[in-house]
Structures are given as structure tokens and as C-alpha cells.
Backbone:
């Protein structure tokens, strides 16, 4: 075990037939998540007691899973320590965690995580691309902007859009078009 860096590791978290980007907080040897209550991830973690952290580097998948659902056929089943868990198929690595609610606040829950199984599938080299990083940032701000339409978040999204347009490759451009569709549903997602 020990794939994750100290700090917050952005992954696609899978729970029962559900996927969403989430941060796994790794500090002082511990693993945690802070989940906004009401998300499918929060409901499933509370109900089933496990989560899989899928390590992927695909901007389109981050955007798609942040704003919509994947079909049931998108998941692979694994048996881990008595749990039947769901993970994503095309990942560089995955870690299955036993998950327990540690603290409940009004809007969020802190989940304490214990690694059960870690598998590295295909580790790839990722030269830093600011366009990729900005897609992740814009997606984080976008999920929050959809809740509150805060103009400050809109300004941050605009800032990151410009970086994606300057530094991104085709996959980042595709993710940006998808993101714009989710943020402006009149036009609909550009799938
Ligand atoms: C990179 C990234 C990281 C995120 N991290 C978290 C997180 O740590 N906790 C959380 O509650 N939401 C987080 N979100 C927002 C959720 O992904 C978003 O609310 C999603 O719609 C939840 O989907 P679900 O209802 O299928 O669980 C993050 C979004 C992105 C793009």
C-alpha cells in the first residue's frame, strides 16, 4: 500500500454503480474523505461502507462523472474482503477502502478510510499540462457554481477556461466542451 501522496489525491470514487470525482485526503498515515451530504457517493458510502478510489488521468471522465452518471455496464465487480465492490475498468490503479462515517456536520460528513486492497494496473507518465489541471479546477468550481451561481466561481471558471484553451490538447478541449454543456444546459452537453 502507499500509492497516494500526502495531501489531497483527486480520484474518481466509485460506490455501488456510481462514480464521481472526490478528494482522498492522506495525512499522517490516515485516509479520509469529506463528502457533501446528499450526493450519491455520500448516500452509498453510508449505506454500504466501502469506496474505491480509481486513479485515472482523463479530463473527459472527470467532467462526465462530476455532472452525470455512467451506465451500469461501465463498472467492473471485484470481491474485496467480503465486499462486492465496483470499480472503473480503464484505470492506472485502484484502491478499495473500508469506509466509516467519522463525523456528521450539517452539510458534510467526514469519512474515515482504511485501505483493503491496492492494485496498480498501468502506471503512465504524465508530463504536467496546465490545461489538464485547469479542467480539474473548472470542474470543481462548476459543481459548486451549479448549487449557488456565485459570480466569483464563474470568474474562476472563466480564468481556467482560458488556460485550457491555451495549454490543453484535444482531450482537454473535449472535456471543456462537455463542461460548458453541463454549465449551460440550454445548449445541452456536447457528448
Ligand atoms: C476534482 C473534483 C473533486 C471533488 N471532490 C469532492 C469531494 O472531495 N467531496 C465532495 O462531496 N464532492 C467533491 N466533488 C464534487 C462531486 O464530484 C459532485 O458533487 C458530484 O456531482 C457528486 O456525484 P454523485 O452524486 O454521483 O456522488 C469534486 C468534484 C471534482 C470535479
Residues:
Amino acid at each position: 500500500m502507499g500509492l497516494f501522496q500526502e495531501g489531497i489525491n483527486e480520484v474518481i470514487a466509485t460506490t455501488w454503480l456510481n462514480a464521481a470525482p472526490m478528494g482522498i485526503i492522506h495525512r499522517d498515515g490516515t485516509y479520509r474523505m469529506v463528502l457533501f451530504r446528499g450526493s450519491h457517493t455520500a448516500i452509498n458510502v453510508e449505506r454500504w461502507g466501502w469506496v474505491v478510489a480509481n486513479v485515472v488521468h482523463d479530463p473527459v471522465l472527470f467532467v462526465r462523472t462530476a455532472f452525470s452518471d455512467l451506465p451500469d455496464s461501465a463498472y467492473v465487480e471485484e470481491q474485496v474482503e467480503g465486499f462486492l465492490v465496483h470499480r472503473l475498468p480503464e484505470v492506472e490503479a485502484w484502491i478499495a477502502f473500508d469506509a466509516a462515517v467519522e463525523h456528521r456536520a450539517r452539510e458534510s460528513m467526514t469519512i474515515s478510510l482504511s485501505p483493503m486492497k491496492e492494485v496498480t494496473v498501468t502506471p503512465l507518465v504524465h508530463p504536467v499540462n496546465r490545461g489538464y489541471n485547469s479542467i480539474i479546477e473548472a470542474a470543481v468550481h462548476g459543481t459548486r457554481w451549479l448549487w449557488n451561481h456565485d459570480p466569483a466561481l464563474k470568474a474562476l471558471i472563466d480564468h481556467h477556461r482560458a488556460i485550457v484553451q491555451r495549454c490543453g490538447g484535444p482531450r482537454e478541449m473535449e472535456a471543456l466542451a462537455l463542461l460548458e454543456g453541463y454549465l449551460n444546459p440550454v445548449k445541452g452537453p456536447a457528448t
The mean pLDDT is 96.
